[in-house]
Structure formats: C-alpha cells, structure tokens
C-alpha cells in the first residue's frame, strides 16, 4: 500500500527547520494541554491596539453554543498586514503581480506603495458612504485591485464578500442579496487565458435581481467597451480626488472580517463568516509554520482570491507575516503547460501552492514543459483542495521539485479559515496522498455512522472536537443553520463532511466528502444547486446530480434528468442543458455527463436513492445493493443500460 512509501524530511530542511519534529510534538502537546496559554503566546505575533487577556471561549453544545477567541482584544487587520511593516520593510516588495499575457509587464508593489493604494481605496469607499459593518461585494479578476479592495474594507471595518469572477450574474445576484450589500466593486473585464470575461456586464445583469445594490465601483482593467450608468463610478476617477492616508478602524477581535459563500449539501450557498482576531492569527500562524516562511522568500499561492485559499494564502497570511506574495492573473496552462514554471523562474519563486487538479492537467501534457524551465529557486511545494493521488504527488515531487522540495498537502475548508491537517516541511516525514498530522490546536476524531468514537488505524467520518482560532463563527444571517449544519450530526463536535482514514502512524488520509457535496477541480459544488438549476429549465421535470470519477478534475458532475411529459431526449437538448447550467451558475458547474432517465430510483416514500445513482455514474453496476425497497425497481435496469460513459 502507498502508506508504506515514506519520504523523510530532507537533510537540508531538517537542519534549518523553523520547527523540527521534537518542536512540533512539544507545540502540539502545549496547544492541547494548555490551550489558553499557548494561544495567548501565539497572539503576540499580531499587533494589538488592546492585547487580549483570554483566548478561546467556546462550546459546541446546543444549550451553550458559542465560539469566540481573544474577545477583549482590539486590532485592525490592515494595520497588521501593512502599517506595522512600514518601519522595517517599507521598501520590500509586498505583492508581485504577474499578468495573464506573458508579454505584458509584471507589476510590483512595496509595502509602502501597497499601504498608499489601500488607503486610497479605503477613502473611495468612505466617500461612497461605506461604514464599519457594511457589506461590500467584490467581483474582481485577479488584479492587484482585488487585494487593495479587501484590505481597504478591513481598514475601515467593512465586511467584504468576494464572489469568484467565474460565477454567473444569477449566482452573483444571490450573493449580493443574501448579505444585503449596497455596493459592488468590479472591473470592466477580466482576462484569463487570453480571453475576456465580461464582469461589468454581469454586474449589470445581476443588478436587476439584487434590490439592495446602489453603487458599482468599476476598476478599469482591460479598457474594454462597457456601459456606465447612473449607479456606476469609475475607480480611477474617484481615487484621483482622495488622500493616500486613511486611519485604521479599531476592531474587536470578534468583529466580522469577511463573508465567503460556499456550497453545502442542501439549499443555496451559505455565507461563511470569519472574524478579525482569530482568523488573522490562524492565517499568520499556519502560513508561517506550514510554509516555513523566511524573509526574502517569494511565496506563490496559485489560487483565485474568490476562494478561501486566495483570502488566506495570497492576502492575509503572507501579508500579516511581511512576506512577498505573488498574484497571478491567468491560467496554469496558458499559453502552454510551461507557464507556471516560467513564472517561477521569472520571479524566483520559493514556494508554489496549487491544486492537484492543475498538476494532473499539466502532467498530461508531459514532462518537457517542466524540464525546459530551470526551477532552481523552488524549495517547497504545496497542494490544497482535494485528495492528491500518489501518482500526481510523485510527479510534483520528482519532476517539478527534482526531489529537492517537500510537498505540504494541506487539508482544510472554507469553514476552517486555514490549514488544519498538514505536514511541516522540517518536521514531518511525508507519505504521498496523506495530509499527515494535525497542526497545533487541531483535535481530529474519527467516528462511525452512529457517532461512536473510533480509535487507532481505522476509517470514519472526520470531526474536530475542539475549537481553533480560525474557525468560522456563523452562517451570515442564519445562526441556526450554522449549528444545524455542523454540530448536530455528531453532538458536541464539528463535523467536516469528509471521510477519512487514519493509519498506524496516526497519519490522516482524507478520502473525500461523505455528504451531497462534490469536489470538482478542487472547487466545492452542492449537488442540490446543480439540480435546482436543471429543474429551472422548462423541459426538465426532475434532476438528480452525483459525482463521478474524473481523471483531471478529481470528480466530474453526472446528472440524471427526467423530462416533462411530451418532451423528447436528444443530443441537442443534452448540450443545451449543459449550457443552461453553465449560464445559471457558472462554467465550474457545467455537467460532464447528462443521462436522460424515464424515472429515478426512489423509495416508496419518494426519497431518491443516491447510492444507486452514484454507483451507476462510477460505472460500478455489479454491486448496486438491495434495490427491492424501490417503488419501481425496473427503473434501475434502464439507468444501467443507458449509462453515459
Ligand atoms: C473540501 C473543502 C481548503 C481550501 C480549498 C477548498 C476537500 C481540501 C484537501 C486535501 C483532501 C481536501 C475536502 C474539504 N479538501 N483540501 N488536502 N486533501 N481533500 O475549500 O471549497 O471549502 O472545500 O475540500 O473535501 O471538505 P472548500
């Protein structure tokens, strides 16, 4: 089995490690036995206007449910990411921006320049009436202004809600309306892989369904042709008249920092809320430990700022730690499969942090694209978002890293704020495919279906039994849903929704979601969302969506569709339905396969038997299990016969 395959900490890393194995063990012990003292000490890595006198105050129990950290502390996130660095590293590069087009010029911003840009952006927001606690929706491409905008919100105490630029107008409208945001920051257009994304036009379309929206601030990025209306303000015009100085808003540690919408197993995406002190501490602590960050290292998290990975490891973690963070506008494989490694060479990147799906896609194009670049600056490689198959792990390690760089496979979620289970490069021997061991303060537990705690080498459902500073605090506007979603499956524990195996060395191997959530290219997709989009189509009566194995995306989207009486299935309708979902939600939700089905397997009480649908989508039709309890067992034969492969 692959867990016998061990990659010891390389000698160079072991000698110079910030945290070696003995230190990790000691830290872990201290974090669990005296959590308060441990976290109050760690809290000193931040700059507080008023230092906290207590760390965690939490309970996962129903009657007493609460999650608070450092609750008498006062600080400002932007002050921690910018102002406090000015005296020591004002002239150091804070952000390197690499454009989509390799022929265009990169941009660099020192901490001093970034500070000025953020202050200006904050003053523009203030001039538009944005105040502490207001929600600001950010729908931007991967341009420096995306970082300016979120930090500007943090500076004045506004709550940002970043919506990935790949989401449709409808998805954007839902996210604006849910948090009642009056203002959207967007750009004329985005650039990705040489193509343009019509962001401003999408906002215009969303506006019709987002009644709270009053103003749109538009950053000129491509200079493309757009229409400016009564509620639209050009950012460059507004910024011309404001000062590059803006005081920071003192924030309580538990004041909200941002909302980020994420998909769940039921209903519409929920607004995950993170607060100020605990989140920033977790971002800083994990970025420092997991990536063993040293001054001068160029750190590149190749995610989009529209996902939590971008929030924590492009912006907040690196900047809190005074790092140089690289922001890339484009795609990993454009103009060709060399691009990532060319960017590494161009900016002398020390750490690359990306998703397994990108590695699998690049691996397919062959080693030459990697070998024609030098990569001598690389020392550390990271992955996130989905389980990494050992084959992709070894390719990353051997071909990309030439055996020099450890791989940190970080397991976490939008809800967790930052990494929870991950190796430390100077402390943890690696096993390809395992996220290895919990970080300090993280107490994982495996339980069976009945909530029975499982000990030793075993597989089960992954729970976390104690709060950590970076934990989400609530679902925006729906605290009951927060408790219901995460703390009722197994009483008194946070349930992650993931299945997991623990081996004889105590290493954790995440096996994937055990709920109705699928992971497409490292992005979380609720099957219920795709189903709702499909049934909105006038010809569709019913839909059931499940995940299927996909060799690049990890999981693909497989949809079973029942048409209304009188409608006929056709190849054209199949294509049209895929386009429909793409337009309703966004390209990432496009079904990979649609199977027309005269009926879906249901129990006599009308519940769809997803277990059977999953097996058929996986092509595993020999073990469908007991189908005798179905209202109409014959539908299964039709599904098997007409499976889309
Ligand atoms: C889900 C969370 C973490 C930020 C990006 C995704 C899966 C995440 C790993 C990993 C195996 C992983 C889990 C988790 N996942 N990282 N290293 N190994 N699975 O955040 O959209 O909130 O999705 O991604 O299933 O529950 P997200």
TrEMBL record:
CDD domains: ACS
InterPro entries, per database record: Ac_CoA_lig, ACAS_N, AMP-bd_C, AMP-bd_C_sf, AMP-binding_CS, AMP-dep_synth/lig_dom, ANL_N_sf
Post-translation changes: Acetylated. Deacetylation by the SIR2-homolog deacetylase activates the enzyme.
Example of a GO cellular component annotation carried by this entry: cytosol
Residues at which CoA binds: 192-195, 309, 333, 521, 582
SUPFAM superfamilies: Acetyl-CoA synthetase-like (SSF56801)
Residues binding Mg(2+), per UniProt: 535, 537, 540
GO biological process terms on file: acetyl-CoA biosynthetic process from acetate
Catalytic activity entry: acetate + ATP + CoA = acetyl-CoA + AMP + diphosphate
Cofactor: Mg(2+)
Transmembrane residue ranges: none
GO molecular function: acetate-CoA ligase activity; AMP binding; ATP binding; metal ion binding
Key word Glycoprotein present: no
Protein EC: 6.2.1.1
Amino-acid positions noted as binding ATP in the UniProt annotation, renumbered to this chain: 385-387, 409-414, 498, 513, 524
Sequence positions bearing N6-acetyllysine: 607
Domain AMP-dependent synthetase/ligase: 83-466
AMP-binding enzyme C-terminal domain ranges (all copies): 529-607
Acetyl-coenzyme A synthetase N-terminal domain: residues covered: 24-81
Keywords assigned by UniProt, alphabetized: Acetylation, ATP-binding, Ligase, Magnesium, Metal-binding, Nucleotide-binding
Pfam family, one: AMP-binding_C
Family that this chain belongs to: Belongs to the ATP-dependent AMP-binding enzyme family.
UniProt xrefs under PANTHER family: ACETYL-COENZYME A SYNTHETASE (PTHR24095), ACETYL-COENZYME A SYNTHETASE 1 (PTHR24095:SF14)
Summary of the function given for this chain in its UniProt record: Catalyzes the conversion of acetate into acetyl-CoA (AcCoA), an essential intermediate at the junction of anabolic and catabolic pathways. AcsA undergoes a two-step reaction. In the first half reaction, AcsA combines acetate with ATP to form acetyl-adenylate (AcAMP) intermediate. In the second half reaction, it can then transfer the acetyl group from AcAMP to the sulfhydryl group of CoA, forming the product AcCoA.
Name of the molecule in the record: Acetyl-coenzyme A synthetase
Lineage: Bacteria, Pseudomonadati, Pseudomonadota, Alphaproteobacteria, Sphingomonadales
């Amino acid at each position: 089995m692959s867990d016998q395959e061990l990659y010891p900490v390389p000698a160079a890393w072991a000698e110079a490690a910030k945290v070696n194995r003995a230190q990790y063990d000691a830290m872990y012990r201290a974090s669990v036995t005296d959590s308060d003292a441990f976290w109050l000490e760690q809290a000193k890595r931040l700059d507080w206007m008023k230092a906290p006198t207590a760390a965690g105050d939490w309970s996962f129990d129903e009657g007493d449910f609460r999650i608070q950290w450092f609750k008498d502390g006062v600080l400002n996130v932007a002050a921690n990411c910018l102002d406090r660095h000015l005296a020591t590293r004002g002239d150091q590069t804070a952000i390197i921006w690499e454009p989509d087009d390799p022929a265009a010029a990169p941009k660099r911003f020192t901490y001093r320049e970034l500070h000025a840009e953020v202050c200006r952006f904050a003053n523009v927001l203030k001039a538009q009436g944005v105040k502490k606690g207001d929600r600001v929706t950010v729908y931007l491409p991967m341009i420096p202004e995306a970082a300016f905008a979120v930090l500007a919100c943090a500076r004045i105490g506004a709550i940002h809600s970043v919506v990935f630029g790949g989401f449709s107008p409808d998805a954007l409208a839902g996210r604006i309306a849910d948090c009642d945001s009056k203002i959207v920051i967007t750009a004329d257009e985005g650039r990705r892989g040489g193509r343009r994304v019509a962001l401003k036009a999408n906002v215009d379309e969303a506006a019709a369904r987002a009644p709270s929206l009053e103003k749109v601030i538009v950053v000129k990025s491509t200079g493309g042709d757009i229409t400016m209306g009564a509620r639209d303000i050009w950012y460059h015009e507004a910024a011309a008249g404001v000062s590059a100085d803006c005081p920071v808003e003192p924030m309580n540690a538990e004041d909200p920092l941002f909302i980020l919408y994420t998909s769940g197993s039921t209903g519409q995406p929920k607004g995950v809320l993170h607060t100020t002190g605990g989140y920033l501490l977790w971002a800083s602590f994990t970025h420092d430990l997991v990536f063993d960050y040293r001054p001068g290292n160029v750190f590149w998290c190749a995610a989009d700022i529209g996902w939590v990975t971008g929030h924590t490891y492009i912006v907040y973690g690196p900047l809190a730690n005074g790092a140089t963070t690289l922001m890339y506008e484009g795609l990993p494989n454009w103009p060709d499969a060399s691009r990532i490694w060319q960017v590494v060479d161009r900016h002398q990147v020390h750490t690359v942090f990306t998703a397994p799906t990108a590695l699998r896609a690049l691996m397919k194009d062959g080693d030459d694209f990697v070998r024609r670049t030098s990569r001598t600056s690389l020392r550390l490689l990271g992955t996130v978002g989905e389980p990494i198959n050992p084959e992709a792990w070894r390719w990353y390690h051997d071909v990309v890293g030439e055996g020099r760089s450890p791989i940190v496979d970080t397991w976490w979620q939008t809800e967790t704020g930052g990494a929870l289970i991950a190796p430390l490069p100077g402390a943890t021997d690696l096993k390809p495919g395992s996220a290895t061991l919990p970080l300090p303060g993280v107490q994982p537990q495996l339980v069976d279906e009945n909530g029975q705690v499982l000990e030793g080498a075993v597989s089960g459902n992954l729970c976390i039994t104690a709060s950590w500073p970076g934990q989400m605090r609530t679902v925006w506007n729906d605290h009951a849903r927060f408790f219901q979603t995460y703390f009722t499956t197994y009483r008194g524990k946070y349930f992650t929704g993931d299945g997991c195996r623990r081996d004889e060395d105590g290493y954790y191997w995440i096996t994937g979601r055990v709920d109705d959530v699928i992971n497409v290219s490292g992005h979380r997709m609720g099957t219920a969302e795709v189903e709702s989009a499909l049934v909105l189509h006038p010809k569709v009566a019913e839909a059931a969506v499940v995940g299927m194995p996909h060799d690049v995306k990890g999981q693909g989207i497989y949809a079973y569709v029942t048409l209304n009486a009188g409608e006929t299935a056709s190849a054209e309708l199949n294509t049209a339905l895929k386009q429909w979902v793409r337009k309703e939600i966004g390209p990432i939700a496009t079904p990979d396969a649609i199977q027309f089905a005269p009926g879906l397997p249901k129990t006599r009480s009308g519940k769809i038997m997803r277990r059977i649908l999953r097996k058929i989508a996986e092509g595993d039709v020999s073990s469908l299990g007991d189908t005798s309890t179905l209202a109409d067992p014959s539908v299964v034969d039709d599904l098997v016969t007409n499976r889309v492969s």
